[in-house]
Amino acid sequence: MRITVYLTDNRPEPWIKALREALPDAEVDVWAPGAPQADHAVVWAPPQQMLDEQAPGLKTIFNIGAGVDAILKLKLPPTTQLVRIDDGGMAVQMAEFVCHALVRHFRELDYYQEAAKDGEWTYRRPRQRQDFPVGIMGMGVLGQRVAKAVQHFEFPVNGWSRSPREVEGVRGFAGEAQLNDFLAASKVLVCLLPLTPDTRGILRHDTLSKLQFGGLLINVARGAHLVEDDLIALLDSGQLSGATLDVFQTEPLPADHPFWRHPRITVTPHASARTLRDETVAQIAGKIRAMDRGEPVAGVVDTARGY
Ligand code: NAP
Ligand code: GLV
Q: pLDDT tens digits, residue range 258-267?
């Protein structure tokens, strides 16, 4: 078995070493033009040339992230399966990131931090968590894990997905028809949708303004979900009271972008849930072994659906 590796943004050597250790029978090498035919590819943002050259015999492309919007812009070999990382240690990271943003906002920790700078011993009036229902857009692998974590803090949780989903303790909404009801029932909005033609620009003036007044946006999915000028207008009018943004239309976020300096926006550099090498390699090796035994694997992307 041969595995070819191409990783933009990551040094390939540690990945090759880990893949060789996990699959001792496999030949594992970095892809370069003219590389021999492989059975599987492990990639992040590969060039079209790699997919074209490898197309005839390539069984699987393993994308080392959860989101497949970037690779779906390429022309994929028609007979090759695309498999994304499902969880692989990302879900717990996403849960801690979202809970941190939520609790920081709900408990007004920024207020206390500012007061402490002046040595002020002062209190804010306690708030009711029932007044801060959390709406999670995208109830997949990450959204469900975030819902579970948020429930531990006893916030009401709403979930929105494409098809109806029954998740214990979560008030479920599905499809376009229930989007407005979902937004109206939520004050904190967490975006964990894949980026597809249906979800691009979904965080815009007419959707965000349907949230309960003074809402908080947490976007941890993709920058292209958000219409950036609409967010600034809603924050400046007070309709929204804050935003924690991990993803942006342009990454890295340009130095002169207004988000960096906006007093109610927190920026993080696409760091809410990082790909973890050991967990990811273990998952890919497990899936290759399962496929060799003829068993189905999780995380196969429906390319027509876009996730
Ligand atoms: P997933 O398991 O595929 O879940 C996607 C969810 O979105 C599903 O519940 C799906 O509905 C729902 N959905 C898709 N299209 C929809 C639509 N048009 N309307 C309503 N709901 C829709 O994905 P995941 O593993 O949770 O990851 C979600 C996204 O997080 C990724 O695509 C990626 O972009 C992002 N991400 C970001 C980071 C980061 O560091 N910031 C890290 C990892 C992932 P159904 O349940 O009906 O299918
Ligand atoms: C990161 O953004 C991912 O999609 O895994």
A: 999 999 999 9
